[in-house]
Amino acid sequence: MARTTGSDGEKTEAAVREAAVNLIARFGYEAMSMRQLAAEVGVQAAALYRYFPTKEELLFTLMREHMEGLTDAWETACPISADPVQRLSAYVENHIAFHIERRHATHVSNMELRSLSPERLTQILRMRTAYEKELRAILRDGAEAGVFSIDDTGLTAMALIQMMTGVIVWFRPGERLSITEVTATYLSMTMRLVGAGTDGETTHDGARALGRARDAAAL
Amino acid sequence: MARTTGSDGEKTEAAVREAAVNLIARFGYEAMSMRQLAAEVGVQAAALYRYFPTKEELLFTLMREHMEGLTDAWETACPISADPVQRLSAYVENHIAFHIERRHATHVSNMELRSLSPERLTQILRMRTAYEKELRAILRDGAEAGVFSIDDTGLTAMALIQMMTGVIVWFRPGERLSITEVTATYLSMTMRLVGAGTDGETTHDGARALGRARDAAAL
């Protein structure tokens, strides 16, 4: 009986998270009430507070799990190879794949930071910085190895992340392009942006690695 | 007397717009009430409805004027020259300058589209499409002239716009870099992304024009 309750509890908690992401993405965090959320899930408002003692606790949990998921996905996707082009390709592919599957959660994570308490905001921003630092390290390694040509590592990292996350604004499955085609084009744009050789003109290994990355993305 | 009233009216309307942009950027459109807005401006709620009969009318006005301002700024900034590199440089400079000065209005315009009625949403999206079409035309002209190397004009336009608008997320005046330095770096990244030659390696005119654009941005 306890086990069944636990299992139901987990299901309810998952339902709460999913409904919260959708409601916040649709109306905004400040406009969503716990009562509205409870009605959406089909439970009493009091039941919600068992899982999330405050509304901000719920928002923080959604954001923390989003960032943990992204970090875990990157740890899995990060290649053993030290080659900057391979690592950058993996970063781009992982970033686009992760966010395209979590459009609403990404909107919530990017837009509702204003509603976190200072301590919790710091915690989330620290996780983001750690994730972005991985990209800066790849860019710096590539520039030092002479594979990339970069003016400003920090600005390039921000530009790439915003360009990639921006895919969720316009991409809809089943339209003109598949995720694979979009990712291949973004890989190509990324490699050009970091100066990893333009198609057919480069003399170093970047273009070959890009070709491999494109083949992989096309599978 | 009538003139004074008119002038006060214009001041009040401007104050309403400014307060609305700030409140919506901070709490979200759905969470903002007309009563809260009236209190912020220091007028009776009834007075607001003289300027904006509905809350959605207010949101729509903010978004329409934002897009009209962007379009007007681009019409002024658009060079007479047909050179794709010069036109792309002008587009990037204008886009960054416009949005960096209107951080809150940009957030509102990008995040609150969900709250517009279908007809008004269509109107705003039509204005956006027209503005983005200008960029696609520059990219297409550059590709046809052999100055740019582009895989997909539509995707490249979206990537560039999201990369550039993203500046408002992290840029704060008075920090490490000036607007001029940020713009110069984004110009350089843009030119590389569209394949307009990497520094010192290109054989066509792109790099020279880029140099000119950088000099201009550095003034």
UniProtKB/TrEMBL annotation, chains A, B:
Domain called HTH tetR-type: residue spans:
10-70
GO terms (molecular function) for this protein are: DNA-binding transcription factor activity; transcription cis-regulatory region binding
Keywords of the record, alphabetical order, are: DNA-binding, Transcription, Transcription regulation
PROSITE patterns assigned = HTH_TETR_1, HTH_TETR_2
Q: Which residues form a coiled coil?
A: none
Point out the DNA-binding stretch(es): 33-52
Pfam families linked: TetR_C_24, TetR_N
Tell me what this protein is called: TetR family transcriptional regulator
Q: Which organism is it from?
A: Mesorhizobium kowhaii
